[in-house]
TrEMBL record:
It comes from Sporolactobacillus spathodeae. It comes from the Bacteria. Its EC number is 2.1.2.3, 3.5.4.10. Keywords: Hydrolase, Multifunctional enzyme, Purine biosynthesis, Transferase. This is Bifunctional purine biosynthesis protein PurH. Belongs to the PurH family. PANTHER family: BIFUNCTIONAL PURINE BIOSYNTHESIS PROTEIN ATIC, BIFUNCTIONAL PURINE BIOSYNTHESIS PROTEIN PURH.
Length: 514
């Protein structure tokens, strides 16, 4: 008996070519409304699904293939006599191939302001049902959900129109991933509609963006997956204009650098090494901002990642070109700047990232052995706490100190805890991060800053458990401090500030970054 293929696709890419090949091998084609029309228009023989089901397509296409004549033909186990007798008695014929791709739900909800009913109408029911039936019975049925597989399948057909089991199994695995991802997007859409924050099941779906040469270290395998609903203002959506492929560590560092530079609306430059900022500068223009970021730590910036929130021109490009950098991130580059940066630097990665607003519902996932932690991204800043800010010392910060304190508070959030950042005149002059005690982080920051601590301000991501950090800061010439407060021994730190005429501000908000 001739083999039969059921074809029902929303995306008609490559359809006619593939059907043509199946027809030429003597395979009978059965199809639904729009797909059938396309096949007929190409002059190829095709049966209507209604001829198989003896039922019209109804409810605007909501019910067309949902019928025992279809699912019996797909699910009957070919080697099982009872199954074959059962379908035969009912006049159901086996279906050997399913070529289905689904209603474009993702594309529909990606459209701005899509109507709820339009989204709902784009939830495919019959398609996933056929895909799942066929994938379950993959020993007998070949199931194709991706036009990219058409040629592989066509080329694999033997004289009896059989497909090797290994390929059928691979295609079935792909189908279950595909329908799971499709349902995950639908689930996410509905979960957001009803405003549930942390539902009882976490059904994430990501799409492979690229294989990576290796992970954090060369002996670790890795890949990069991106969110299906694109956020343009991310590293995942960045356009690479030049340079070597991004590595695993590059992607994480670039994301960290972008996260910091996007805190600022004024021209800002950020240098990052190993996820921590090693240079941050603000300026009247981006050139000045970069000079300040560079001066933070001219040693650490070597081999680092630089993120800028303004266009890179030729003058800035010359400066960036003069040192070894792994990546530059900016919203745009002039043509001259690209010429300068590409010259003799084939590896230097140039990324163009949109600096539009982030989605407000950015969530952070951190895997632990046996589970996943989920939290809101720490997007809060000085603006969110300004009503609650308290000046706790006898001396109030001057206006200039207050500006520096706000800046210092903004950046310390991005340093690994325990974190201390020092700021002087629109630039970070030192930082200590990832230390297991706070005074240790402060000592590192103060030492790094050297005599740039004179007149600088200090920020701390969490409260001081004792007054030793204030004492170290005072000795180095720090004039003002910003920290959350909240220690049972806050008074000791306040007294120490008063002793050295330091102004101290409590924000009431902690910014741990573990
Ligand atoms: N309802 C059904 O029985 C049904 N059967 C197949 N579909 C989908 O209909 C689409 C193809 O429709 P058409 O051939 O009319 O262009 C495919 O994406 C397929 O997955 C269905 N549509 C939605 O559920």
């Amino acid at each position: 008996m001739a083999k039969r293929a059921l074809v029902s696709v929303s995306d008609k890419t490559g359809l006619i070519d593939f059907v043509q090949q199946l027809v030429s091998k003597g395979i009978e084609i059965i199809s639904t409304g729009g797909t059938k029309k396309a096949i007929e228009a190409a002059g190829l023989p095709v049966l209507s699904i209604s001829e198989i089901t003896n039922f019209p397509e109804i409810l605007d296409g909501r019910v067309k293939t949902l019928h025992p004549a279809v699912h019996g033909g797909l699910l009957a186990v070919r080697g099982k006599k009872e199954h074959m007798d059962a379908i035969s008695e009912l006049g159901i014929q086996p279906i050997d191939f399913v070529i289905v791709n689904l209603y474009p739900f993702k594309e529909t909800i990606s459209k701005p302001d899509v109507a709820y009913d339009e989204a709902v109408e784009n939830i495919d029911i019959g398609g996933p049902s056929m895909l799942r039936s066929a994938a379950k019975n993959h020993r007998s049925v070949t199931v194709v959900c991706d036009p990219a597989d058409y040629q592989t399948v066509a080329a694999s057909l033997d004289a009896d129109n059989e497909v090797p089991f290994e390929l059928k199994q691979k295609l079935a695995a792909k189908v279950f991933r595909h329908t799971a991802a499709y349902d995950a997007l639908i689930a996410d859409y509905f979960t957001k509609q009803v405003g549930e924050e942390f539902p009882e099941k976490l059904t994430l779906t990501y799409e492979k963006k690229q294989s990576l040469r290796y992970g954090e270290n060369p002996h670790q395998m890795a890949a990069f997956y991106s969110e299906p609903l694109k956020n343009e203002a991310t590293i995942a959506a960045a356009k690479q204009l030049h340079g070597k492929e991004l590595s695993y560590n590059n992607i994480r560092d670039a994301d960290a650098a972008l996260g910091i530079v996007k805190e600022f609306t004024e021209p800002a430059a950020v240098a990052v090494k190993h996820m921590n900022p090693c240079g941050i500068g603000l300026g009247a223009n981006i050139n000045e901002a970069y000079d300040k970021a560079y001066e933070t730590d001219p040693v650490s910036i070597f081999g680092g990642i630089v993120a800028l929130n303004r266009e890179v021109d030729a003058e800035l490009a010359e400066k960036l070109h003069s040192i070894f950098l792994e990546i530059i991130i900016a919203p745009s580059y002039t043509d001259e700047a690209i010429q300068v940066l590409e010259n003799k630097k084939k590896n230097l990665r140039l990324l163009q990232v949109k600096f539009t607003e982030d989605k407000q519902d950015f969530v952070q996932y951190t895997s632990v052995r046996g589970g996943m932690l989920v939290q809101d991204l720490d997007t809060k800043g000085y603006e969110d706490v300004k009503e609650d800010v308290k000046i706790v010392t006898e001396r109030k910060p001057t206006d200039a100190e207050m500006e520096s304190l706000k800046f210092a508070w903004t950046i310390v959030k991005h340093v690994k805890s325990n974190a201390i950042a020092l700021v002087n005149n629109g630039r970070m002059v030192g930082m200590g991060g990832g230390q297991t005690n706070r005074v240790g982080a402060a000592k590192i920051a103060l030492e790094e800053a050297g005599d740039k601590t004179k007149g600088a301000v200090l920020s701390s991501d969490a409260f001081f458990p004792m007054s030793d950090t204030v004492e170290e800061a005072a000795k180095a010439g720090i004039t003002a401090i910003i920290q959350p407060g909240g220690s049972v021994r806050d008074q000791e730190s306040i007294d120490m500030c008063n002793k050295y005429n330091i102004a101290m501000v409590f924000t009431g908000m902690r910014h741990f970054k573990h």
